[in-house]
Structure formats: C-alpha cells, structure tokens
Amino acid sequence: LQIGGYLNLLANTIDNFTHGLAVAASFLVSRKVGFLTTVAILLHEIPHEVGDFAILLRAGFDRWSAAKMQLSTALGGILGACFAIWAQSPKGAGETVAWILPFTSGGFLYIALVNVVPDLLEEKNPWNSLQQILLLCTGIIVMVLLALT
C-alpha cells in the first residue's frame, strides 16, 4: 500500500473533524443554521468521498478495505461535534460559536480558494475560466438566498 493512501485518510479525518465542529456549532446557533450547514457539508462530501475512495483504490486498497477505511474517517466528524459541544461555554453558545464557526469557515474558504484560483490562473481557455467564476458566484448567491430565507 502506498503512503499516499494513508495520508489521504489522515487528511480526510481532519476534514471530517472540522465538519463535525461546524455542524455542532451551527446547531448551537439555531436549527435553521444547523440544517443549512449540514446540507452544505453533505453536498460537499458526496463528490469528496467518491474522490477519496478512488485515491485509496489507486493506493492499493481493495474495495472493501477502502470502504471500511473511508467509513472510519467519519469518526473524525463525530469527535469534532463532541468537541464543539464539550467546548460550549457555560455563558452560552455564543462564546463557543464565536471561535468555531470563523475557524471552520476560514478553513473551508482557504482550501476552496487554494484549489480553485491556481487552476483559474493556469487555464488557457477563457470560456472555461468564465464558467468556473460564474459557478463560484452562483454558489455564493445560493448561500446568500438560503441565509435570507
């Protein structure tokens, strides 16, 4: 088995930990924010987990082992949610989410931009760059509309 598979599992566990933090902290704010965060993370996780599964297969894992290992990384999400609840301040949820949500949001934005911007700068076809920018803007508009409802 290649070391890249194990590194991917570690990165996926840390990613899931931050997802657990975000979901739990969002539910501490309100049900609405919690459900919106959960849906956003689920939509992000579907293609992400498929890609991670493919990485594990390429690293030498068989299908069953790759599936079990992917499932085991979900424990990171549970630990993240437990940590967010444990870290809740006796003064109220406001102090907890005051650091958890900016931390997780900033991490998500950083990772997204680190992945997207270099590709946009290297893209030779302006139409493809425009499509990516329009889809990025569409995602932002959808988030704003969901926040306003």
TrEMBL record:
Membrane protein topology class: Multi-pass membrane protein
Primary subcellular site in the record, as a coarse category: membrane
GO process annotations (BP): intracellular zinc ion homeostasis
Transmembrane segments: 69-87, 99-117, 129-148
Reactions performed catalytically: Zn(2+)(in) = Zn(2+)(out)
UniProt KW keywords: Ion transport, Membrane, Transmembrane, Transmembrane helix, Transport, Zinc, Zinc transport
Pfam family, one: Zip
Compartments it resides in: Membrane
Transport in keyword set: yes
GO cellular component terms attached to this protein's record: membrane
A GO term for molecular function: zinc ion transmembrane transporter activity
Family the entry assigns: Belongs to the ZIP transporter (TC 2.A.5) family.
Protein name listed in UniProt: Zinc transporter ZIP13
Native source organism of the sequence: Cephalopterus ornatus
Organism placement in taxonomy: Eukaryota, Metazoa, Chordata, Craniata, Vertebrata
